[in-house]
Amino acid sequence: MPTVPFLGTTISAMALKISVIGTGYLGATHAACISSLGFEVVGIDTDAAKIAALQNGKVPFFEPDLEELLSAEIASGRLTFSTSFDDLRDADVHFICVGTPQVKDGLAADMTYVNGALEAIAPLIKAGSLVVGKSTVPVGTAARLRARLLEINPDVDLAWNPEFLREGFAVDDTLHPNRLVVGVTNDRAENILKEVYAKNLAEQTPWVRADLPTSELVKVAANSFLATKISFINAMAEICEAAGGDVTVLAKAIGYDPRIGSRFLQAGIGFGGGCLPKDIRAFMARAEELGARQALEFLREIDSINLRARARVIDLVRRDLSEDLMGKKVAILGAAFKPDSDDVRDSPALDIAVQIHAAGADVVVHDPKATHPAKQRFPALTFTEDIDECLREAEIVLHLTEWKIYRELDPSVIKGLVKRPILIDGRNMLDRSKWQAAGWHVRALGRADTN
Ligand code: UDX
Question: What are 30-84's pLDDT values in tens digits?
């Protein structure tokens, strides 16, 4: 069994006890995955309902494979959940996984939960333990928190270890990340993290040791790059529309260049979710605080291009249906910000649905997983889990989240349900020629009309 120097002594690595503070998408997945590596893990959250669900092996959101893993880990006895910070006193490593949403009155990240977590655990954790931040935070946070932690409890340490998991692939991304980044101030902290991630190291997962600020920046830089790639192709979509080109062919062609790569070049209604939009905004806000506003000015444009894609879909609806949308039945396929997720935070699909509803249309939204969270956010909208009901008598159909079930629809069958066979493919994922052959008028972002 590998060993790790711990407080001058050595203890068995598998005897390391782990706590995970915050059990949302990131924390619940991290807790279950770390437990599956053989560690004893306690997940802590102040939300009693969430903890009660997790204790019963129920994941309070949809994430493929997570519920099975969670149940197995609880059954193994290694994984427990609690609302009491007292239950983390015994742990050697404490992962902070709480959210950093956008503040209500600006672009910056709301640090209330991260600060609160640190203050709550600092006086409780035992000498020699390591606090590891995983939340996405403004650069400079880790150093500030480390100083505060040592002020309260001088015998402990803090490191940063950003998480890159994608919703829909959270378990696989956590168990098999494409890199591990650790921000540390000393070898001991790095060695403890090497023990936690020993299995990944054995699998040759690239390991990047960085200082605290660089480790925080890696996360926001990566998300900014991804957002830029998506907005780049959506800008090309606007040009293709103006020039009569086809952005899907353009993306395929430039993607063959390995320096560009074909991933994240799917043109459509753009990026949403709990990360990309708020992360680029918080990054801009932080750059301004640091006196480096100009360096990230381009992200403002990335954000604008992204929001413009939503507006362009609504323009298409008005062009193909009618300027006046009052009373028109609009069927919307998709509410989640992306498929295989029930997350509707900053969902482009839902934003478009809300705007069309506000214009007076009779909007019916279908989603296989996200109708419940979507309804909680926008109770005035009509939702259904029955696709036929969504499509019946529709005057236009909008494909806005690329769930597999929508690609499996038979356009000639559903043509019999709708009032007018007009489709807007907001994700450029449906087989246009098949829909056209079945008699549909198909419109898409970045592709000239062909019927
Ligand atoms: C993202 C990052 O990928 C992940 O590394 C980070 O840890 C958290 O943020 P996630 O929010 O789960 O993950 O979603 P992602 O798969 O990146 O998609 C983000 C948005 O971009 C979705 O709304 C998706 O529909 C959109 N998108 C993605 C496009 O519009 N086009 C693309 O080509 C790819």
Answer: 999 999 999 999 999 999 999 999 999 999 999 999 999 999 999 999 999 999 9
- Compute, in degrees rounded to 10, the torsion defined by CA atoms 341, 61, 279, 381: 70
CA of 117 to the centre of ligand 1 (A): 27
- Give residue-wise pLDDT tens across range 188-236: 999 999 999 999 999 999 999 999 999 999 999 999 999 999 999 999 9
DSSP character for 447? B
What percent of the chain clears pLDDT 70, i.e. is strictly above it?
97
Residues of the chain predicted below pLDDT 50 = 1-5, 7-11
Q: How far is the centre of ligand 1, averaged over its atoms, from the C-alpha of 412 (Å)?
A: 32
Domain ranges of the chain: 3-210, 215-451
Whether residue 390 lies in the annotated active site: no
- 426 CB less than 6 Å from ligand 1? no
Q: What is the dihedral of CA 32, 35, 37, 39, to 10 degrees?
A: 160
Topology (CATH) of 215-451: Rossmann fold (3.40.50)
Which residue's CA is minimally distant from atom 31 of ligand 1? 266
Residue whose CA lies nearest to ligand 1 atom number 19: 271
How many Å apart are CA 290 and CA 217, to the nearest integer? 13
In this structure, the residue with its CA closest to atom 21 of ligand 1 is 271
Pocket of ligand 1 contains residue 131 by CB under 6 Å: no
Of the options 1.20.200.10, 3.40.50.11720, 3.40.50.720, 3.40.50.20, the CATH number for the domain spanning 3-210: 3.40.50.720
Task: Give Cα separations from 99 to 25, 32, 117, 134 (angstroms).
Answer: 9, 18, 11, 10
* Phi, psi values for residue 119, rounded to 5°: -65, -35
Question: Is residue 392 helix, strand or coil?
Answer: coil
pLDDT of residue 13: 52
User: Is the fold of 3-210 the same as that of 215-451?
Assistant: yes
Sign for the CA dihedral angle at 429, 230, 344, 312 comes to negative
Asked if residue 230 has its Cβ within 6 Å of ligand 1, the reply is: yes
